[in-house]
Design a protein that fits this description.
Chain lengths: 187, 661, 106, 480
């Protein structure tokens, strides 16, 4: 039952991911990506990482994707703007580039798959029984402890990162203040 | 005992250089407010004083080593302190070889500085010129006096850099394209420098030291024990490659004739007397290394002979006065390498010294002529100048006589010693001896052709507008000193048949002893030797050839251009080949420069086409009608960059995914 | 019955490849950014699978899940910066197409 | 939480190790306060320089009492990372000084500019000191995010926005590669600690981990600007405001190199040849690319690519010899210290010229600079010669050390190729020198120049450093 749920979630994840890439309308892409993240959250849940599932929904779904949607709406890109959008077929508007891109994607993907399949034999444990988790699997306490001891440096640094990002984004996105005329400007 | 004052020898010209640079800066600042301001005239005096002081110190050091000590050494300075195997201690060493070289460099350099003070008068970059010139001398002294290969390399690169600056000194003048010549000189030199660097690395990895004294010990042990023969040969060849670049040997000599675009004192100092001899210095310094390898010796001799012949023949048909001298210099440098390849280390240095005298003299004399002729360099447009510039005429003729090897003059003895040695080695060297002898004939011919065309016959210029005048004493006095040296300089190396000691040979013996021992060891105890009769025959042969060809060259040309014109019409192809230096330069352009440029352009286009799209963008702009289709080509630069990145990562990933374990 | 780890890892690899494909083929910057999010999520999934693989009931291997949390934080940061740049670009060129910037070249 | 646990992690050693980071972060907070609190506004430069100097002081303290590993083995402040820290701080300070004169006329967001600039070295230090992939990753972001913003800081110029976007898009891609690679390594080995990973790699990585390593290496090569990951370099260097280019060219590269050297143990043993090959190709791409440039910023960018190739030789040498040797570390540190001074000086001069309104972008426009501004031209010449590796400059010794390490690792052929490449390199550096000294000035009249004491001091500092490193390298090598 649980493993069936996993395969359904996996299928949805793949289909929606393809949807992100193929959709002509950015809004559709955003919604597809949201569903993809949702199905990944299901998988995390199945694997016993409730906390990750929660922040996947809250942060990814609730914050990041809404940000995307917001920008799409702000710039009014919902409709098909012939200048911005891939006119005919989003994948093949430029055959050379797309072919190259697909080739690289396939190469990277297959390299990973080969590594995974060849590496599976090297894995320490017998490779089954991971989904669903065994009884009493609870990652949260250990996670919290590590986060505030061993990982306190990146944790604090992440706060500095957020601060810097706030500053940087404000500079980038603020409407242009009037800048003194091009006295020292290059023409 | 350490002699830390040795540091002063290069430091003094460096100080002079800095002072001149300061004066130049003041000139620049002054000119901003007053464009007519006279350039910093104090610079010449400063530079000359620095040179004189350095010369004095060299003399003092020289006096010290004439006594019981064989060499003076300063305390060493830890340039790169050891710790991880790399330990470079730099020290100044004045031994018999570097002492002699340093004397020539500072002595001839001093004379040239004096001359330049007159020659460059009124030039806008007067102070700058002396700053460069003093800096050059500094670097040359570092090259010579360093007791360590790294220090030599510093000087090696430094003189290249100064040469670049000085060749391009008159970058803003028309004709000759000095900027291009400077760049060519530097890049060709750098090819040699790369070889030098590699050879140095090789020696370091083999012997674990770059200190000359230790290195020579190591080489001696290896050569006597017959170890590492391949490495020694390779190292010798690489270093010889470096020497080829700096000393303008085939096939790297093409920069030297172009380098004549620089002011004439520069040609005299750098491209005749000092920098170009640094390759010879290096080989003498490492003589055991070369002595240990038959292959290296033969290659050195063969390249030397080939260079002598090619350049000597090219000098025959040049019309540019400095061009004749330039090819002649290349040819004489070839002689020196011929000597080195025959194991005649002393003869090579002997020729370095005499050549420094007479070639500096010739260049300075040529400068005086060109100066008097209002920058005319074409010998076809001169003639009859002996009446206008008597002092220049007499001194110049002395130099030409020495160059052509007229009996008993300095060039005669040094050239004869080289040829005698080559002959004595025998075997394949006999062929090289023949080449050398033939080149000697060419040398005599073109020297006297040059004298005849410049100073004899009718005035072939417009007497109404051009008034040749003798140069001021500040220029002619150095000429006279050099002329005297050219005439009698040979006494330091009289041949054995004269039954007087070979002064230079005895002096240099400690330096070349190891090399000779190795040569002796390799040949089983037989050093090449000539009987006195044979030596007399060779001397006679040399004298006869020199006198005969000099006579021929002079008489065919003393009455005007008839012989020149006749040759040109009779043998147009030969004339073209000779005046073009056998087309080697053009072959370079076709074979090396153009392909490299093409490669660079190809890469540019390649990157553009795939990534930067410059060309395609331009096309798209130009041909709007192609519009969308071409734009599809031109779009997505970021994606193309990413494609290369992703592709690179994918290749590595696939390699490692499929590899091992 | 349970799901073998390889399947989780393979799912991640497929998602990663789809993300890469989207990155290279799309020229709408916003969609390109979303493709990058897909790549990051593939990494997340692999970390989760790896953590399960190397955990036992008593001792949870937490390095992976912690990295996931950091990745989510950084994804937010990158999205913010990326979208700010999108807005800056849009102000200049009235477009969000990658083709709009190809001026820097020689 | 358990107090013992806290005491175990947050001890005096930890405080010492993190002191430079904390100083910079504190400076950042003070800068924010200063921005918001009017009376403190004028103190901003003081705060910036103060925090840099404070951090430098903390690094020097660490140099005398290095700390091997803190925070459960996730971060180290050993001697090498302390020295790297000093390199980063110098690079940041040079960039900042030039930014001050670059943005001299009142520009909006200067406070924000300083804040972003002060964040970058925190990230670099985390990268250099990381013993754990998580720490490295956050450091990487902490460096990259400010740089994205700074690169597009001049939003009035489309080139600037473009540069920021290109850097960002490709940077985000490389981060994706890194993360997926790290996750594969983790899935294969169950650890993210470099110490544990090195031990695991010694007994052989599984193919999965090796693929992961390939991805991680790819993202590092991107930051190092190695062929074929280098294509963004000329565009971004050219478009970004020049002071930011200083930081990108020197600091970022140093940080990426420091980390790459740390993880060479994780690369497959057979990869030394591959990396050396990449190094030589990078040198070729950089040098040939530079040969045909007419724009000085692009030329220097390509030359930076060539230098990255030389540095990569060091990585290959270290992989080939199998362990982090003293020579390799000192060569890397010396090379980057010299490169910070040289490239920092050269790009700094460009920033200065640009701020003065000289139309500097083309080599053409440098014509006659030797006459117009002799001191500036002399400094530029010095920097170019050092980049070209002429003896008696820091650049020569740096190259020398790298090549000797390479030879010790028996990568002879690659070392020879590297030496030969330096011949090509000289050709284009000389072209610039020739333009400055040997070609008559173009007609355009240079505008009246304001005295820029700060930029002048920075240039003089760089020039002195280049010379001292060339003549008295023991001053620097003694530190290592």
């Amino acid at each position: 039952m649980v493993d069936l749920l996993f395969y359904v979630a996996a299928l949805v994840a793949v289909l929606t991911a393809v949807g992100v890439v193929l959709a002509r309308n950015p809004v559709v892409s955003v919604v597809s990506l949201l569903s993809c993240f949702g199905s990944l959250a299901v998988i995390y849940l199945l694997a016993g990482f409730q906390f990750l599932a929660a922040i996947q929904i809250l942060v990814y779904g609730g914050a990041i994707m809404v940000l995307f949607l917001f920008v799409v709406m702000l710039l009014n890109l919902g409709g098909l703007n012939p200048e911005d959008e891939d006119r005919d077929d989003p994948l093949f508007h430029d055959r050379r580039r797309s072919a190259g891109g697909l080739a690289v994607a396939v190469a990277l993907g297959s390299a990973s798959l080969i590594g995974i399949l060849r590496g599976a034999r090297h894995l320490a444990e017998p490779t089954n029984g991971l989904v669903p988790p065994e009884e009493g699997f609870d990652a949260l306490p250990a996670l919290a402890e590590a986060m505030f001891t061993r990982y306190s440096l990146p944790f604090e640094a992440a706060s500095v990162l957020l601060l810097a990002t706030t500053v940087g984004v404000m500079v980038l996105a603020k409407r242009q203040r009037s800048i003194p005329p091009a006295g020292e400007e290059r023409s | 005992m350490t002699h830390d004052w040795l540091w002063l020898i290069p430091a003094l010209p460096l100080l002079g250089s800095l002072l001149c640079a300061l004066q130049h800066a003041q000139v620049l600042r002054g000119r901003a407010t007053n464009p007519d301001l006279q350039p910093g005239v104090g610079a010449g005096a400063t530079a000359i004083a620095a040179m004189a002081a350095a010369f004095g110190l060299c003399l003092r050091g020289f006096g010290d080593i004439v006594g019981e000590t064989e060499l003076l050494q300063s305390s060493s300075w830890a340039w790169i302190p050891g710790g991880g195997g790399l330990d470079i201690q730099v020290a100044m060493v004045l031994d018999r070889l570097s002492g002699a070289m340093a004397l020539v460099v500072t002595g001839v350099g001093l004379l040239i500085h004096v001359y330049a003070a007159g020659y460059m008068r009124g030039d806008a970059g007067y102070a700058k010129f002396f700053a460069f010139l003093n800096l050059f001398v500094t670097m040359m002294l570092v090259l010579i006096l360093s007791g360590n290969m790294v220090g030599t390399f510093v000087g090696w690169e430094g003189v290249g850099l100064c040469s670049y600056l000085l060749i391009g000194f008159w970058y803003d003048r028309d004709g000759g394209n000095p900027g291009h010549a400077a760049q060519k000189a530097f890049v060709v030199n750098r090819i040699g420098d790369a070889c030098f660097l590699l050879g140095m690395f090789l020696l370091f990895t083999t012997f674990g030291t770059l200190d000359y004294a230790n290195l020579i010990e190591g080489i001696r042990a290896a050569a006597m024990g017959g170890e590492n023969a391949g490495t020694l040969t390779l190292a010798a060849l690489l270093l010889f490659g470096g020497a080829c670049g700096k000393s303008a040997q085939f096939p790297l000599f093409t920069w030297l004739p172009d380098a004549m675009a620089g002011p004439t004192p520069v040609s005299a100092l750098i491209h005749a007397a000092t920098m170009v001899t640094s390759g010879i210095y290096l080989v003498i310094r490492l003589n055991p290394l070369f002595a240990a390898s038959e292959v290296a010796l033969f290659l050195v001799a063969a390249i030397g002979a080939a260079t002598a012949l090619i350049a000597g023949s090219s000098a025959l048909r040049q019309r540019d006065l400095k061009g004749i001298l330039a090819y002649s210099t290349v040819s004489q440098l070839g002689y020196m390498f011929l000597a080195l390849g025959s194991g005649a280390w002393v003869a090579a240095l002997f020729h370095v010294i005499t050549h420094a005298f007479f070639k500096a003299l010739l260049f300075l004399g040529a400068g005086s002529v060109i100066h008097g002729m209002h920058e005319e360099k074409d010998v076809h447009k001169m003639g009859g100048l002996r009446r206008h510039m008597p002092r220049t005429f007499i001194t110049f003729t002395c130099g030409a006589a020495a160059l052509s090897g007229l009996p008993l003059l300095s060039g005669f003895f040094s050239k004869d010693e080289i040829l005698a040695h080559t002959f004595a080695v025998g075997g394949a060297w006999w062929l090289l001896w023949g080449v050398g002898l033939f080149t000697a004939a060419l040398t005599a011919y073109y020297s006297w052709r040059m004298v005849a065309l410049v100073f004899f016959g009718e005035e072939r210029f417009d007497v109404a507008t051009v008034h040749p005048h003798e140069s001021p004493p500040i220029m002619t006095v150095p000429l006279m000193v050099l002329a005297a040296l050219s005439l009698v300089g040979g006494i330091i190396g009289l041949p054995a048949v004269f039954h007087v000691p070979h002064l230079l040979g005895e002096w240099l013996d400690p330096v070349v002893r190891t090399g000779n021992e190795i040569l002796e060891h390799r040949s089983g105890g037989h050093l090449p030797h000539l009987s006195h009769t044979m030596e007399w025959i060779l001397l006679g042969l040399g004298s006869a050839i020199a006198l005969g060809c000099a006579h021929l060259g002079f008489h065919r040309n003393k009455n005007g251009l008839a012989a020149e014109v006749a040759f040109e019409t009779d043998h147009p192809k030969l004339h073209g080949a000779l005046s073009d230096a056998w087309g080697i330069d053009r072959a370079y352009y076709a074979g090396v420069v153009t392909p490299v440029r093409f490669l660079a352009a190809l890469v540019a286009v390649f990157i553009d086409a795939f990534c930067i799209d410059g060309a395609i963008n331009a096309m798209a702009d130009a041909a709007k009608r192609a519009g969308t289709r071409l734009k599809a080509f031109a779009d997505g630069q970021v994606a193309s960059y990413g494609l290369w990145m992703g592709g690179g990562a994918a290749v590595i990933a696939l390699l490692w995914a499929l590899g091992g374990n | 019955m349970s799901v073998p780890t390889e399947h989780l890892l393979a799912l991640a690899a497929i998602l990663f490849a789809i993300g890469v494909a989207g990155f290279f083929t799309r020229r709408n910057l916003i969609v390109v950014l979303m493709s990058i999010e897909l790549m990051l999520n593939a990494a997340n999934l692999t970390f989760v699978a790896g953590s399960r693989l190397h955990s036992s009931t008593g001792a949870v291997q937490v390095d992976g899940p912690i990295f996931v949390i950091f990745i989510i934080a950084v994804a937010a940061v990158e999205a913010a910066v990326g979208l700010a740049l999108v807005i800056a670009l849009y102000r200049q060129k009235q477009t969000v197409s990658l083709d709009a910037f190809a001026r820097l070249e020689d | 939480m358990n107090p013992d646990l806290i005491a175990q992690y947050f001890n005096a050693e930890c405080a010492a190790a993190l002191a430079p980071l904390v100083t910079l972060a504190g400076g950042l907070l003070l800068l924010i306060v200063a921005e918001w609190f009017e009376p403190m506004n004028r103190l901003r430069p003081l705060l910036f320089v103060g925090s840099i100097l404070g951090a430098a002081w903390a690094e020097v303290a660490l140099l005398n009492a290095p700390v091997a590993a803190v925070l459960g083995g996730t971060y180290s402040a050993d001697k090498a990372s302390a020295l790297w820290g000093l390199v980063f701080l110098a690079s940041t300070l040079i960039a900042w000084v030039h930014a001050r004169s670059y943005y001299r006329k009142s520009r909006p967001f200067l406070g924000e500019h300083d804040m972003l600039l002060l964040t970058a070295p925190i990230g670099m230090m985390m990268m250099a000191g990381a013993l754990d992939l998580t720490v490295f990753f956050i450091g990487l972001e902490l460096l990259s995010i400010p740089l994205y913003c700074l690169a597009s800081f001049r939003r009035d110029r489309s080139e600037s926005v473009e540069a920021g976007l290109k850097y960002f898009v490709l940077g985000a891609f490389s981060v994706g590669l890194f993360l997926y690679g790290a996750s594969l390594i983790y899935a294969a080995t169950g650890t993210l600690s470099l110490t544990a990973l090195t031990a695991a790699a010694a007994t052989g990585f599984s193919p999965m981990a090796q693929v992961g390593m390939a991805f991680v290496l790819g993202s590092l090569l991107f930051k190092l600007s190695v062929w074929p990951f280098h294509l963004w370099v000329p565009d971004v260097y050219q478009g970004a405001p020049t002071p930011v280019t200083i930081l990108m060219a020197t600091g970022t590269k140093a940080a990426a190199l420091a980390f790459t050297l740390r993880i060479t143990g994780l690369l497959p043993e057979s990869s030394a040849g591959l990396i050396a090959l990449l190094a030589v190709l990078t040198m070729a791409a950089g040098n040939l690319g530079a040969l045909v440039q007419s724009n000085l910023k692009r030329l220097l960018a390509y030359s930076g690519v060539a230098h990255a190739g030389t540095l990569l030789l060091l990585v290959a040498a270290q992989r080939a010899s199998g362990e982090l040797s003293y020579e390799a570390t000192s060569a890397a540190l010396f090379y980057m210290a010299a490169y910070v001074a040289t490239a920092g000086g050269a790009f700094g001069l460009l920033a200065w010229l640009e701020a003065d309104g000289e139309h500097f972008t083309q080599i053409e426009s440098l014509k006659g600079l030797g006459r117009r501004r002799p001191a500036m031209a002399a400094a530029m010449t010095l920097f170019l010669l050092s980049l070209g590796g002429i003896p008696a400059t820091g650049g020569f010794l740096a190259k020398w050390m790298v090549f000797s390490v390479t030879l010790d690792a028996h990568l002879t052929g690659y070392a020879i190729a590297g030496v030969l490449m330096s011949v090509i390199a000289l050709a284009y550096y000389l072209r610039v020198i020739a333009a400055m000294y040997m070609e008559p000035a173009s007609d355009q009249v240079a505008p009246p120049m304001a005295k820029r004491t700060d930029a002048m001091l920075a240039t003089a500092f760089c020039a002195a450093a280049v010379l001292v490193m060339g003549v008295l390298p023991s001053v620097f090598l003694g530190l290592i």
